[in-house]
Amino acid sequence: MNRMVPSPKPKIGVFDSGVGGLTVLRALIERIPEASYLYFGDTARLPYGSKSASTVAHYAVGAVRYLQDQGAELLVIACNTATALALDEIKAAADVEVVGVVDPGAEAAASASPRRKVVVIGTEATVSSHAYRRALEARGVTVREKACPLFVPLVEEGWVEHPVTEQVARIYLAEAFSEEGGDFDADVLVLGCTHYPLIKPLLRRVAPEHVAIVDSAESTAQAVAGQLQSTRPSSSGESGLGGVSALKFFATDSAEKFRKMGTRFLGLPVEDVLHVDLKE
Amino acid sequence: MNRMVPSPKPKIGVFDSGVGGLTVLRALIERIPEASYLYFGDTARLPYGSKSASTVAHYAVGAVRYLQDQGAELLVIACNTATALALDEIKAAADVEVVGVVDPGAEAAASASPRRKVVVIGTEATVSSHAYRRALEARGVTVREKACPLFVPLVEEGWVEHPVTEQVARIYLAEAFSEEGGDFDADVLVLGCTHYPLIKPLLRRVAPEHVAIVDSAESTAQAVAGQLQSTRPSSSGESGLGGVSALKFFATDSAEKFRKMGTRFLGLPVEDVLHVDLKE
Lengths: 280, 280
Hints:
Two copies of one chain form a homodimer. The first copy, chain A, contains eleven helices and twelve strands.
């Protein structure tokens, strides 16, 4: 499905259940600063992790339809749970190209792993879905998935450089990289949750030195840039967070709360936020 | 409203958005072992904290009506958010007596505080509602409320006796009991979240020695026992977790997940779980 009509300034719709996907938006702005962006955070109905696949699909389809109505010419599903549980249904319901967050991360991890052994960390919901496992095994890579349920609340508490977060990371990563009767000698660590880029410097210090860190947010931005390059070769491709992109935000819960929390995740002021009510 | 018809074995309905309210059920079983219990966990729609008051009221009313249909003769709202945002609406919709979790905790705290200064810890949602503040100020007590958003995920991770949890508790309680230009010399700490009884021994070690800990779960069980005593003076009042109570559980998300997590919160086997689908 590629009915996108090229315009001088591509309009990209980004969807997440909350503010986490703003790390993906940030990576997109760095890669494709000439685009304009519409971001939809379904903050009233998060977390998606505890909901059934059909409910998640229903919510996500409603949100991406809304983004299309606002003029989105390409859709990025910046939510691991929605990608894992509902990407096919979203693609079927959308009239424009849809990029999820799992495949680009898996592709980058596979390329970066000479040992063909990868550790994926994420929320309980993402790990239980085994979406990364499937995507990586299809690329001939052995996977260990490790749920790190405390990272999201630690990031939301603002403890991104904090001794407690470092201690928690040491515990989780020790479990992820060790194995009864020997170590799991993976050479890549995939950040399979949109909150984790905020603690990437800390994870870099704590992870074994030889391990490469693959950030799904960055890999997804790269995939989207490639997609645009192939359909609109005039894209300048210049990089930077110069604030030249036009940004518009939609949130289903309080706009004020979104503004406050969002600024930390985006690393840029979150200003133009509209509260949206989607029917169930 | 007191249309409860006394029966030889009172049937008590307990409602929470998830498994946290099982600490209230545990306290109830200890106090009133001769009762039989129906517990409703609205696990598919949690957390309530990020939802509007009208949505929470709508969900809670649906759940307590379900409990009444199952024969509940008295209802306990074992959820701080639902109590804070929707107790009046629940009472209006119910045909039996309703006991919330905030007033009993506030009453116990006021009685235990000669200094008339109390610290309340809870989730972000409970603190923002200021339900404990209102209830305590009405009793002439000065209150400091402190949100402790990491405690719930730490308890759910199972780290109830863990150095990380102890470090987090030291940070939160230091903030709660100190004040610019001097300490806030409270003599009571209220556990205003149903998850916190699981880390009560740890909080006891970390809190200042002279501070009394008031556990809303226990205070609520006490209030319910008093309520029953006044309407059915024949209650034996014998105490213990001897497993004599009849227990039945209803969950809106996976029954298996509820069983697994619930056993830790209740401290008793959670066996008879029925999955329930409530219409929106």
